[in-house]
Design brief:
Elements (H helix, E strand, L loop, with lengths): L5 E4 L4 H9 L6 E2 L14 H21 L6 E12 L2 E3 L5 H11 L3 E11 L5 E12 L4 H10 L19 E5 L2 H5 L3 H10 L4 H14 L1
Parallel strand pairs: 1-2, 1-3
Antiparallel strand pairs: 3-4, 3-5, 5-6, 6-7
The protein binds thymidine-5'-triphosphate.
Length: about 210
Amino acid sequence: MPARPLLVLASGSPRRLQLLNQAGIEPDRLLPADLDETPQRNEHPRSLAKRLSKAKAESAIATLSEMDLGPAFVLSADTVVSVGRQVMPKAELVEDAMANLRTLSGRTHRVYTGVCLVGPKGALRQRLVETRVRFKRLSREDIDGYLASGEWRGKAGGYAIQGLAGSFVVRMVGSYTNVVGLPLYETLSLLAGEGYDIHGRWKAATVEAEDA
Ligand SMILES: Cc1cn([C@H]2C[C@H](O)[C@@H](COP(=O)(O)OP(=O)(O)OP(=O)(O)O)O2)c(=O)[nH]c1=O
């Protein structure tokens, strides 16, 4: 019997790996891409998320072609937070995080995740998922405390809904897993559409759990 194609997650994000694991899927390899994520002039946040998710998959495929591992599913994603057309930068410095939190305070913003899957035969499929999130008005103490926590580091928009900032959310419309970085419903439907045996993986996981 030919070996089943590998599943490669083209990501260095621990959140994306956790989300996939939550859905019962264990990638065989992680191949993070190192890309320039700067938006192009007048690029809509939605287009940016789509473009970068595709670029991450393509970068992983270029690396894979040098590794001779046989056919593979390659999955990637990119998350962008925006207020209107304005992209909130990924927070690397405390100043970025503070500016982001001040902008998001008391307002509704959008979180877009582009998901890209390249199947073992080379077919490329994409999804773009949007979630609307409204934050409460943040007090000075909220912002200072949150900055001190460090949870903003490396996160799109300078916050992580799965942590302390979950308490800032007044209202959310759309997928929660999309905000964390990988919309599970859309990701699993992409995988299933390309013939990835999701339920076979679940059954294998159940047997392992029973044996434990
Ligand atoms: C808004 C939000 C983002 N994030 C994270 C998810 C992503 O890791 C990050 C968005 O940046 P991305 O550029 O999408 O991803 P990344 O560089 O961290 O990982 P990779 O490109 O290797 O896949 O922000 C949260 O964890 N929680 C949130 O609530």
